[in-house]
Structure formats: C-alpha cells, structure tokens
Design brief:
The protein is of the alpha/beta class and 327 residues long. It has one domain (15-313): Thiamin diphosphate (ThDP)-binding fold, Pyr/PP domains (Rossmann fold), CATH 3.40.50. The chain has helices at residues 2-10, 17-39, 56-63, 79-84, 89-96, 130-144, 163-173, 202-207, 221-236, 268-275, 279-284, 289-312; strands at residues 71-75, 120-124, 150-155, 178-184, 187-188, 191-192, 213-216, 242-247. Strands 2-1-3-4-8-7 form a 6-stranded parallel beta sheet, sandwiched between helices. Strands 5-6 form a two-stranded antiparallel sheet. Helix 5 (89-96) crosses helix 12. It starts with a helix and ends in a 15-residue tail after the last helix. The structure holds thiamine diphosphate.
Length: 327
C-alpha cells in the first residue's frame, strides 16, 4: 500500500485538460447508467431502458471534438450519445421517471431523448429512422452554410434497414457533413451478426458509395477521437461524409438493467475479454489518483442531484394526456 502511495505521489501529473475531460465524460455516462440500473427495479423509472454500459468510448470519442453547433442523432440505446453531446442530465433522468420536466416532457422515455439546446436531434425506438433524419439535418446545414457537422449513431442492426444505403447514397452524392457511426456490438437483440449479414465487410460495402471508412476493432476512445477531430475541418468545408465502424460489446442485456449471459447466446468469456479493455478504466490511467477522485466526486454529486430533480418533479397533468402526441 505504502509503495502504491509513493508511486502515485511520484508519478508526474498527466491529468491535463483533455485526459480529465475525457475520463469525466466516460465516467459520467457509466455512473448515470449504473444508477439507472440500480433504480430501475423500484419502478420509479417508467420506460424501458437500453443501457450502453461498455460502449461509452464511441459516444465520447466522437462527441468530444464536436463543437456546440454540431449535432447528433442516436438510437434507443442513446443515453451515452445524448450525454456526450451535452444533453441535460436532469432532463434525461426526469424523462425516464416520466416527469413533466423531462426532455420530452415525460412522454418519450429513455428511447426518445432530445435536447435541441445541445443539438441532440433525437433518438428513436424505431431502428434506423434517425439515420435519414441526420442526413436531412446535414442537408440543412449545407444549405444554410453553417459549417456544422452531424454525427449519426446507429447499431449494426440499423445497417440492415433500407434507409441506411439510401442515406449513404444521398449524403455522398450531395457531399453532406455526416459522420456515420456504427456501434457494432455484434447483436441485434439476440441475433448475432453472422446470422444476419452475408459478410462482415461493412466498411467495404459503405466504401462503394465513395465514402471514406475506418474500422476500430476495440473502440479506443482516443483513437476514435483523433480520427474524428482530423476529419472535421474538411467536412466543414464541403468534403462530404465519413463512416466509422466501432467494434464494441454491450455488457448488459438488450433491454433492462440485468445481464443475459444465462440465456446462452452470449458468453461470459467474451464479456471478460471486453472488460479488460474497459474505456473508463483505460481513461483513468492517464490521471493521478487525486485527479480521478475529484472527478468521481463531481460526477456522483451531479448524478445524485439529477435523480433528486427527477424524483421531486411533477408528472405531466392529466389534461395533457393527448397533447404533443399523434394518437
Ligand atoms: C424498424 C424496426 N424493426 C425492428 C425493431 C425491433 N428491434 C428493436 S431493437 C432491435 C435490434 C437492433 O439492433 P442494433 O441496431 O444492432 O442496435 P443495438 O440494440 O445492438 O444497440 C430490433 C430489431 C424496431 N424497433 N424497429
């Protein structure tokens, strides 16, 4: 113990702004979702939750170099995307609790997060639908000449929807500023990708649209971040879309707070392999123990305040049952 303390004390501080910010963003998402999992069985959370625990490197790596004017669209597994882009944590928590102060006034739940102040365009339960939404928003940015870029997150399952190739083609044809981001966790609910797709060469398929592609085999936060940061200047000047495929692993079950390893279609040994590459712990290694503790304390305080806000907020009034909904 004494030796560890001494080593920590002597280690030069590598807790630069970047390292602290990236660790803080990863840790905040991880802890927010762990809290959601902890609270879920109490029934205070009124919507299904699709947790991205284990996949955080992608949202943080892509969103960290983005500017406020840039936008994101995401999936029902979208807590990480929303938070990484700066979506309000109290409004997300209140949304999950079904409260009037939620980001969709308690009517959308975990799968429908939106925060237009942070340019989070929205997440959706319907697989693939936010891909053309991102492309449309990117088209508007091009027409308005804002120089803004849209990061469009999707699962590997979404690449099997018809709107995916249509969106790629349209974005490539019109040189739209879209970062297509495939969070490839290898499964669509219970179905492994090998049973759904004829080849695993997703990047090669996307490249046929003339879109530059890159595959990240272990979802390394910093590698993803550097790649996106390097691509942004050209994209802002009309260089057209890029595509990244980030291999990853969802640690928990498809939907809900638990795990699904006893169901027999995903193995604990694969989970353990991915846990050795835990993006949160990797990012922590760049910090001193004191710097990490300070960030952890701030994250805990912020999450506790968000949960309190959600608990204390009112439900939408009954007379609003049919407002802001289609049917
Ligand atoms: C259009 C549509 N088809 C089917 C479904 C049912 N469904 C819900 S989640 C899901 C799996 C999607 O997997 P993926 O895109 O890889 O995302 P992941 O859950 O792995 O993050 C499916 C098929 C749906 N919600 N929408």
């Amino acid at each position: 113990m004494a030796a560890t303390k001494a080593a920590t004390a002597k280690r030069p501080s590598r807790s630069g702004a970047d390292a602290g910010r990236i660790y803080g963003a990863l840790r905040r998402i991880r802890r927010a979702e762990e809290e959601i999992a902890r609270i879920y069985p109490t029934d205070k959370i009124k919507s299904p939750v699709h947790l991205s625990i284990g996949q955080e490197a992608i949202a943080v790596g892509v969103c960290d170099p983005l500017e406020p004017r840039d936008a994101v669209s995401g999936t029902y597994r979208g807590h990480a995307t929303y938070l990484a882009k700066g979506g309000s944590l109290p409004a997300m928590m209140a949304e999950l609790f079904g409260k009037d102060t939620g980001c969709a006034r308690g009517k959308g739940g975990s799968m429908h997060l939106i925060d237009m102040k942070a340019n989070v365009l929205g997440t959706s339960a319907v697989v693939g639908t936010t891909v053309p939404v991102a492309v449309g928003f990117a088209m508007a940015q091009k027409m308005l000449g804002t120089g803004a870029v849209v990061a469009c997150f999707m699962g590997d399952g979404a690449t099997e929807e018809g709107c995916f190739p249509e969106s790629l083609n349209f974005a490539a044809l019109h040189k739209l500023p879209v970062i297509f981001v495939c969070e490839n966790n290898g499964f669509a609910i219970h179905e492994p990708i090998a049973k759904r797709q004829a080849t695993d060469r997703l990047c090669a398929r996307v490249a046929t649209y003339g879109i530059p592609t890159k595959r990240f085999v272990d979802s390394d936060t910093r590698a993803i971040r550097s790649h996106v940061a390097a691509a942004l200047p050209k994209m802002r000047k009309g260089g057209g879309p890029i595509f990244i495929e980030c291999m990853t692993w969802r640690w928990r079950e498809h939907v809900g707070p638990g795990e699904d390893y006893d169901a027999g279609f995903r193995s604990i040994s694969t989970l353990k392999k991915w846990q050795k590459k835990d993006p949160v712990e990797i990012a922590a290694k760049a910090l001193t123990r004191a710097a990490r503790a300070e960030i952890d304390a701030a994250v805990e305080a912020e999450i506790a305040a968000a949960v309190r806000f959600a608990e204390e907020s009112p439900f939408p009034p009954v007379e609003e049952l049919y407002t802001d909904v289609f049917a």
